[in-house]
Design goal:
77% helix; 5 helices; 127 residues
Length: 127
């Protein structure tokens, strides 16, 4: 059973990472497929709120729980701090970095949604 739970923890890691990528850059997909706005916009809002509020995404405790059931060490801190920040920011995740990450998500997606809005105003919502 330990292998099973370890594998499930890995699946959660992959889903979590894919979700973060979608939050940050999913607006690009919306430019190609505007109907994805109904999935991406709530995801982006969730990602920004998680960063600004400094709370833990529910996927992090799930992954930690599955890791423990799988007999693996459970890390401290959050997903971004353990997997992403450790690569990009060796000193660790701070509240200031979380604010920057949240602001980057807002800026990136704000630009993309502004372009989408301008296209909608020009051409209508056909795609």
């Amino acid at each position: 059973m330990e292998v099973f739970f370890g594998a499930l923890a890995f699946v959660v890691i992959i889903i979590h990472f894919a979700f973060i990528c979608f939050v940050v850059a999913g607006g690009i997909l919306v430019l190609r497929r505007p109907r994805l706005i109904w999935i991406h916009l709530p995801a982006a809002i969730w990602g920004v709120l998680i960063e600004f509020a400094g709370v833990t995404c529910p996927l992090t405790p799930l992954e930690k729980w599955l890791r423990s059931l799988g007999g693996h060490d459970v890390y401290t801190g959050g997903f971004i701090q353990n997997y992403i920040t450790s690569i990009v920011y060796p000193e660790g995740l701070t509240r200031e970095i979380q604010w920057v990450l949240g602001a980057l998500v807002l800026i990136i997606n704000g630009v993309i949604y502004w372009k989408l809005y301008r296209r909608y105003r020009r051409d209508g919502f056909h795609r």
